[in-house]
């Protein structure tokens, strides 16, 4: 019997090594080293994004990890510091949950004036089913002390920050969250869509923070530190933070929760649609710790809106697919489509951009212009 051939893009994600060896079929390549791949969002065809189409966001090269020597360290203000091996984690009670990850820079390419950073369009968002252990269970094993305020996560990947202001020398990718959030629903995942976690997505172990932008879901996890102090590392302040007005002056706040958003998958920018036909407009919508209540669509640039049909069942912190049967006008010319989502907390996607968000959290309504012909 011949071995089934894997699809090329999947092979790419399974390999560790110089990115130039990767066949990157099907994905939009934003950067090869470090590897940054965008999901072709127009290919959205189901609730779960296949591993070979799930976007990849990395700041440093994929680290080489030997699972025999790899350990998850849990240290800092804990009663019992731990060094866990992968098979020990796999013996603990496991949980499987679908979670949508969106990079906080998704949609950056639509900002004007143009913002610095990877020019993500619609595809730095994907949805997978993650399997792992609850962070809360690991923290309980270690015995977190009462004085602890934050939990810090460190990835094995490292590199130099070339653009100022950054510290000199190599740094790792670290992020933190409050102890309260850490005990909520955070997963330490070793499987993705039922497969072994691929190297590009954090093998052998990654954090999955449901409802938060992707940067919180630290990949290639090696260390968890329980701390009594707020953490203000590079990826928590200089990057992945925004300005929020305060009583005295605006202060830098780390990015956390995803904001309500709908994206149109089809049609795409500058697509041609047949005059007088029925076109099935489709896409996905997501929010944080709530359900998507409605997704509306305008086919006349925002003048009037129609409800779309929400598909499947609501799943917290995973996207909801939607569709709309559009009676394409007979008149030829350009048409502007806009989608907007509202969640069960009454939050609606804003029409305009909030400038305090810098080059992150792009959730305002994005018009898609198509041509009727
Ligand atoms: N160790 C480590 N974890 C990381 C990153 C990274 O560069 N290094 N990138 C973060 C960012 S910005 C995002 S959006 C998600 C992307 O996860 P994915 O590549 O599995 O899609 O991983 C996060 N975790
Ligand atoms: Mo990100």
* CATH fold title of the largest domain: Sulfite Oxidase, Chain A, domain 2
| Distance from first to last alpha carbon | 50 Å
Total domain modules: 2
How is the main sheet built? 5 strands, mixed
Radius of gyration from CA coordinates: 21 Å
Strand content: 35-45%
Shape field: globular
**What's the CATH C level of the largest domain?**
Alpha Beta
Provide a short characterization of the protein structure.
This protein has 373 residues and is mostly beta strands. The protein contains 5 helices and 24 strands. It folds into 2 domains: 12-254, Sulfite Oxidase, Chain A, domain 2, CATH 3.90.420.10; 261-372, Immunoglobulin-like (Sandwich).
Your description of this structure?
It is a single chain. The chain folds into two domains: 12-254, Sulfite Oxidase, Chain A, domain 2, CATH 3.90.420; 261-372, Immunoglobulin-like. It has helices at 8-14, 86-91, 135-142, 179-182, 234-237, and strands spanning 28-31, 36-38, 56-57, 72-76, 82-84, 95-102, 125-134, 150-160, 170-178, 187-192, 195-196, 206-208, 221-227, 241-244, 251-254, 261-266, 272-273, 278-286, 292-298, 306-307, 309-310, 320-327, 333-343, 368-372. The protein is globular. It contains five helices and 24 strands. A hairpin with a 6-residue loop joins β14 and β15 (251-254). The strands form six sheets. The chain has a five-stranded mixed β-sheet. Strands 6, 7, 10, 11 and 12 form a five-stranded antiparallel β-sheet that branches. It has a five-stranded mixed β-sheet with strand order 17-24-23-19-20, with no helix packed on it. By secondary structure, the protein is mostly beta strands. The protein is 8% helix and 36% strand. The longest helix has 8 residues, at 135-142.
């Amino acid at each position: 019997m011949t071995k089934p051939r894997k699809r090329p893009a999947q092979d790419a994600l399974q390999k560790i090594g110089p990115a130039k060896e990767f066949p990157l079929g099907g994905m939009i390549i934003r950067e090869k080293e470090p590897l940054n791949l965008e999901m072709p969002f127009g290919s959205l065809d189901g609730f779960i994004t296949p591993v070979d189409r799930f976007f990849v966001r990395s700041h440093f090269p994929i680290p080489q990890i030997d699972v025999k020597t790899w350990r998850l360290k849990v240290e800092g203000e804990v009663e019992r510091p731990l060094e866990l091996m992968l098979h020990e984690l796999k013996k603990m009670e496991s949980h499987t949950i679908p979670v949508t990850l969106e990079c906080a820079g998704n949609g950056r390419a639509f900002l004007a004036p143009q913002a610095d950073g990877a020019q993500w369009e619609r595809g730095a968002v994907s949805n997978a089913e993650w399997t792992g252990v609850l962070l809360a269970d690991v923290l309980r094993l270690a015995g977190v002390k009462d004085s602890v305020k934050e939990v810090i996560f460190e990835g094995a990947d490292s590199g130099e920050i070339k653009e100022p202001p950054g510290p000199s020398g190599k740094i790792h990718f670290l992020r933190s969250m409050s102890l309260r959030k850490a005990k909520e629903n955070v997963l330490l995942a070793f499987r993705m869509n039922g497969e072994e976690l691929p190297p590009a997505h954090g093998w052998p172990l990654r954090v999955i923070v449901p409802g938060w932008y992707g940067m919180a879901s630290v990949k290639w996890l090696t260390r968890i530190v329980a701390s009594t102090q707020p953490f203000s590392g590079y990826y928590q302040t200089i990057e992945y933070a925004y300005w929020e007005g305060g009583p005295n002056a605006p202060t830098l706040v780390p990015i956390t929760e995803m904001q309500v958003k709908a994206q149109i998958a089809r049609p795409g920018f500058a697509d041609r649609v047949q005059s007088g036909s029925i076109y099935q407009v489709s896409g996905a919508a997501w929010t944080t710790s709530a359900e998507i209540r409605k997704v509306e669509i305008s086919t006349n640039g925002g003048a009037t809106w129609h409800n779309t049909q929400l598909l499947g069942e609501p799943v917290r912190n995973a996207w909801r697919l939607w569709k709309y049967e559009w009676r394409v006008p007979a008149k030829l010319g350009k048409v502007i489509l806009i989608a907007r989502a509202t969640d069960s907390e009454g939050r609606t996607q804003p029409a305009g951009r909030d400038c305090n968000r810098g080059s992150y959290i792009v959730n305002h309504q994005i018009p898609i212009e198509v041509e009727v012909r």
